Amino acid sequence: MQTISDLVLDKLNTLVVVVNNKGEVEYISNSSKAILGFDSSQLLGDNWWIIPRLNITDGYAVKEKIISIMLHDSYQIEQGFEHALKTSNGLIKWFKWSSAITDDDKVIGIGIDITEKKKAEQRALEINKTLTDKNKEITDSISYAKKIQQAILQSDSFLKTNFKDGFVLYLPKDIVSGDYYFFYENEEFKYVAAIDCTGHGVPGALMSVIANSLLKEVFYNKNLVNPDEVLYALDELLFDSLNKNNSEEIRYDGMDISLCAINKKTNILNFAGAMRPLFIVSDNELIEIKGSKFPLGYYFDKKEFILNTIQLKENDRIYLTTDGYADQFGGSKNKKLNRKAFKELLLSLEGMDGDEQNSFLDYSLKNWKQDAEQTDDVLVIGIFI
User: Fold this and answer.
1) Reported pTM
2) How far apart are CA 300 and CA 20, in angstroms?
3) What's the Cα-to-Cα distance from 323 to each of 19, 128, 154, 194, 258, rounded to whole Å?
């Protein structure tokens, strides 16, 4: 008949082992039968270091360690160490051990069965490894997608070649970006566009590929000239592209754009925007030309894209931007930078060349956000007349 102490040990999945200073096991609790499948009498003496061990070498290594601890008073018994034992039917069980040295130089060890905890830890490790491997595969795929996206992006050398100076500050939130820029010229005009596609990351990047295709269609095949005409055509093409295989539900993906055309001979600027403005710094004053309040691709009964015409002067600076810069959270109160502060930054760029303005805006953004996560894709295009 089991004693109350044995019943408690069985219930708690706990072993009690007493080892003398010769390394011989003098006592093992009867709970060894329920936990390991061995009668306690089978594991007395040296058998404790052999029978339930994964291998003999491991068992005797533990034995020698315990003898060494008992021979040196300055040594402390290691608490909370974990060790595996083998059951009578060959299963592996893990135990967490706590020990104490008695007045007659014996070690009492109390081992708690932590097998389920170990299994849970192993499952967590396996899941974590699977997730890590999957994450690497996804990251590698997106990194390759970045190369594809960079291949369709034009060089900012267009600005330096076709204008007095210029720059492109392009900072994807993730590896790939939903922001996109486009340059084009014909015999009469030089075109510059800043596009903000719905979303960021992979969805935004896929939209930017569509934007690139549609812009080429409009400029190369339709030969449209005025920015407002270009926006009407893009709006129709984008809506049709996103909804051609979807008759039941209208998609509300789309893009915002600021598009300007600058006459090569007269420096007259024609501008049209969909949800995005144009900024002009002239004689150290900033002029904001707002775009129409209609995004491209979204469904509306009527849309109106307004054409704005301005005579530019030498040394004027033009800026096209998506909303990522002004919407960046940061500062001491973790608020948006906002459009007013962004416009003040543009005014402060007076006297800097294109590369210096690019670096200054990049530095100012990082200084504003500090350790905060980047809120959105960032695109700022600067053009010097």
Assistant:
1) 0.71
2) 88
3) 73, 37, 21, 10, 11
